[in-house]
Amino acid sequence: MKIAKSFSTFNNFHYKNSQNYQNCSQRLKIMASLVPANKKILDLGCGTGDFIKILKTKSSKVEGADISKKVANIGKKNGLIIKVANLTKKFPYNNNTFDVITAGELIEHIYDTDFFLEEIKRILKKNGTFILSTPNLATLGRRLMLLFGINPLIETSLENAAGHIRYFTKKSLEDLLAKHNFKIIYFCSDTINFSNTGQLQCQTLAKLFPTLGARIIIKAKNLK
User: What is the enclosing helix (H) or strand (E) of 75?
Assistant: First the structure.
């Protein structure tokens, strides 16, 4: 498939060595805090396994999946369980395998989000936990940029693109999850940025006004 091929090519080109978590420590901290302890966990789009290492403080049964063979091999060399898997196709796992599935900054890269979520439901146990994060289209900065007619950091060409196929607001992501029988348990954000680099930010304001935050972070239950 052309879509699958382009998805794989993009990831292998842009993430040759590892994913960049430099400005994501708060997001990862929040996501990890939402993961219940002593459960069987799968991290989708795990890269070299940085988040897996954090999750291993919560459970001994953690593994990951990533489309890029190059970054997955780095994680494997560090003793992590990682499968190379094209997440635009059927996931290489049996039904009802995991108690918890995490997907950080991944769903915005997926063409067929309906198929993606149905695959997550298939391999996630009933009442299992799904935790995801994605960039927030309605951040404070993007709202202000639109007000002045400026492109709100949405790619218009492949040059310097992040590979995002779509963007979400809290409401649009909640509607999509509800469509697939996921019940939202918790919603928050990590930070409100006041610069494009994220160096000028405020975490306190993100707690007070999460719909203006840089990322949407949701914990949901699989109702099946």
Answer: helix 69-77
